Automatic annotation (TrEMBL):
Name assigned to this protein: U3 small nucleolar RNA-associated protein 18 homolog
Annotated localization: Nucleus, Nucleolus
Subcellular location, principal: nucleus
Native source species: Aphis glycines (Soybean aphid)
Region span, Disordered: 1-35
Family: Belongs to the WD repeat UTP18 family.
Length: 413
């Protein structure tokens, strides 16, 4: 059986490490024709990144419908391995450097009229796109072609939520119409149907998240239930219970704590070793909690409500904490919150209104004023994600689009 492009890409990307210099010269290199050498070179830089000495000529840059001055995009065009952003260069408040690129699903429109999930791969320059058509696509992120590597169809299964596993070897897809879910193994190229026993009371799988330590999948159930599954075998472990329906979940970066937010406006803090609630408090001024996010440095907890208010709490929280900052820029239900990996940007979204997205500069607690503009026309956003080094921002909307933006402050993918 032939391997998929995704499998080939992941294997080549992992095998490309530590190839720093040529140990010998192969005679076949001399005999190969010019076109073959060109293809090999393109494949190499696509995997290991473009070397510092390499340059793109003016003729090549004209082929891309972007400004010539955007030299930083050339680096991302050839990004393969993930490098770290330079330290000591702080993100300034006020205006954010942001550039619209070609859509992530430029090479595929099979995810349906409503795209529900977009997520960047944790270790490679790949992205997952999924929607109500029941199809999930893996694309290679370069901002230009965004070539589709693979597309997987799940029969009679409208995808509402999809996430990569922490190791990036699989992704899990869930639906609000099905209690069961699917897991797709990228290395083996096969999908697995995961049945859920009716005794646990699981009725849907449209709102779940992965613990950063790679151990758990946590899913919001009905009547305040939170179902826990093992990330490895996908087996049910136990069910936690809070007052009112659980609408949002998030983990600390070590997976030892989980926060849940529900319809009663209460935030619960759970110890994941003992599986017990160790603290709970009312979100200030909240009637119904709808979204939750924790910064990667565990410094801030962001809570969004049905009224459009986002409260930012400095951790650890007291019994009756007051927000460090209250953000009032959204006027409809806050459906998604997401910090970038550097914890200096918080993206806030409502899927009930067109162009309802704001980016918060976390250090100053101020909103960037230049995004979105009236010309961005991002539609109603269902999902948001930052790439591992914050170089890219992905948005999934209700217009069959997975939008891609370049955050120019961050040099790497």
């Amino acid at each position: 059986m032939n391997k998929s492009k995704t499998i080939d890409y992941l294997e080549e990307n992992s095998n490309s490490e530590n190839k720093l210099k040529r140990a010998w010269r192969d005679e076949d290199d001399t005999n190969s024709n010019k076109e073959q050498r060109k293809l090999l070179k393109q494949k190499y830089v696509g995997i290991v990144g473009k070397p510092k000495w390499a340059k793109i000529t003016k003729d090549q840059s004209k082929k891309v419908s972007l400004d010539d001055e955007d030299e930083d995009l050339d680096l991302l065009k050839y990004s393969g391995n993930l490098a770290r952003t330079k330290k000591g260069v702080n993100l300034a408040k006020g205006l954010i450097g942001i550039k619209k690129l070609h859509n992530l699903n430029l090479s595929t429109s099979s995810c349906g009229k409503i795209v529900k999930s977009v997520e960047f791969h944790p270790t490679s320059s790949l992205a997952l796109i999924a929607g109500i058509s029941g199809r999930a696509s893996i694309v290679q992120v370069d901002g230009f072609k965004n070539e589709k590597l693979q597309s997987i169809k799940f029969q009679k299964f409208a995808i509402d939520c999809a996430h990569f596993t922490v190791d990036g070897k699989q992704f899990v897809a869930g639906s609000r119409t099905q209690r069961n879910f699917y897991c797709y193994d990228l290395m083996e190229g096969r999908s697995m149907f995961v049945p859920v026993h009716h005794n646990i009371g699981q009725t849907r799988m449209d709102n779940f998240c992965m613990s950063p330590d790679g151990k758990l999948i946590a899913s919001c159930g009905k009547f305040g239930e939170i179902h826990l599954f093992t990330a490895k075998s996908k087996e049910w472990i136990t069910t936690l219970k809070m007052n009112g329906a659980a609408n949002a979940l998030t983990f600390t970066n070590d997976g030892k704590r989980m926060y849940s937010f529900g319809e009663n406006g209460e935030i619960y803090e759970w110890d994941m070793n003992s599986r017990t609630c160790i603290k709970k408090f009312m979100d200030d001024g909240c009637l119904q909690g709808t979204s939750l996010a924790l910064s990667g440095d565990n410094q801030y907890l962001a809570a969004g409500s049905s009224s459009g208010v986002v409260n930012l709490y400095k951790l650890p929280c007291d019994v009756n904490p007051k927000p460090d900052k209250t953000i009032l820029n959204l006027v409809t239900t806050v459906s998604k919150l997401s910090f970038n990996k550097n914890s200096d940007i918080l993206a806030m979204v409502s899927n009930q209104k067109n162009d309802a997205i704001k980016l918060l500069h976390v250090p100053s607690k101020t909103v960037f004023s230049n995004f979105p503009t009236t010309s961005d026309n991002v539609g109603k956003i269902n999902c948001i994600d930052f790439s591992p080094n914050s170089g890219y921002l992905g948005l999934a909307n209700n217009k069959s689009e997975a939008l891609l933006y370049r955050l120019t402050h961050f040099e790497n993918y």
